[in-house]
Specification:
By secondary structure, the protein is an all-alpha fold. The protein contains three helices and no strands. The protein has one domain. Keywords: Membrane, Transmembrane, Transmembrane helix.
């Protein structure tokens, strides 16, 4: 049975797979400085990502005092 790839081709395929995997893991587990600044600015502008229930609880009013 003949192999479909030469040893050199297999080496390049494995090398490409390892590099792709490393770049993927680095992009998942790192947060650049720019992303942190943007997320902090977005939280300051919008008051955070609060659901309507969280907004009611944060306001300190009871749900019966909030108009529908």
């Amino acid at each position: 049975m003949e192999l479909p790839f030469t040893n050199l081709e297999v080496a390049f395929i494995l090398l490409a797979f390892v590099i792709f995997t490393l770049f993927t893991l680095v992009s998942i587990y790192t947060d650049s400085h720019d992303n942190k600044e943007e997320s902090e600015n977005a939280i300051k502008r919008t008051g955070g990502c609060l659901s309507p229930i969280q907004k009611i609880l944060k306001s300190g009013k009871s749900p019966n005092q909030i108009p529908c």
